[in-house]
Write a structure and sequence with these properties.
- It holds the Pfam family HTH_AsnC-type.
- This is Lrp/AsnC family transcriptional regulator.
- InterPro entries: ArsR-like_HTH, AsnC-type_HTH_dom, Dimeric_a/b-barrel, Tscrpt_reg_AsnC-like, Tscrpt_reg_AsnC/Lrp_C, Tscrpt_reg_HTH_AsnC-type_CS, WH-like_DNA-bd_sf, WH_DNA-bd_sf.
- The protein has helices at 7-18, 24-31, 35-47, 80-92, 117-130; strands spanning 67-74, 96-101, 108-114, 135-140.
- It has 5 helices and 4 strands, in the order αααβαββαβ.
- It has 2 domains: 7-47, Orthogonal Bundle (Arc Repressor Mutant, subunit A); 61-140, Alpha-Beta Plaits (2-Layer Sandwich).
- It is an alpha+beta fold.
């Protein structure tokens, strides 16, 4: 189901991205509308798949997950069975925050959050034990410059 998104919807989405825990009254006030139309638009956008879920953003460092690695994966395997096994393996690993299949020389890039380099090595050893991978390159993020979940509206 494709729904049309107008300027008011974009304002509502902006408010939800800023703080999804705020009340309908606060959202309505911020976007210059009233509570019922805002609620109806949010419901429509949920039903239409524009709003996938609401969640809390946690501070990884406060939880001891101080190391962020970007993992570049090259494979010599490109058949469906290998890919299914690889994707299943990634989905089971809570350390994998993001995974993307790429065009170009690198096949996949993973964003992995762990406590330290030893924890990354344990993740790496488990990954290569489950799936045949041609090469893996791990890049440690020294500093997070920008991180957002907000889409440009």
């Amino acid at each position: 189901m494709t729904i049309r998104i107008d300027e008011l919807d974009r304002k509502i989405l902006g408010e939800l991205q800023r703080d999804a825990a705020q009340s309908l009254d606060d959202i309505a006030r911020a976007v210059g509308s009233s509570k019922t139309p805002v609620w109806n638009r949010i419901r429509k956008m949920r039903e239409g798949g524009v709003i996938r879920s609401q969640t809390a953003l946690l501070d990884p460092e406060a939880l001891g997950l101080e190391a962020c690695f970007f993992v570049l994966v090259r494979t010599s395997e490109h058949d469906a069975a290998w890919q299914a096994k690889f994707l299943e393996t990634l989905r089971k690993r809570p350390e994998v925050m993001e995974a993307h299949r790429l065009a170009g020389d690198i096949d996949y890039i993973l964003k992995v959050r762990v406590s330290n380099a030893r924890a990354y090595d344990l993740f790496y050893q488990a990954l290569i034990a489950e799936v045949k991978i041609h090469t893996v390159t791990a890049l440690l993020s020294m500093e997070e410059i920008k991180s957002t979940t907000a889409l440009p509206l």
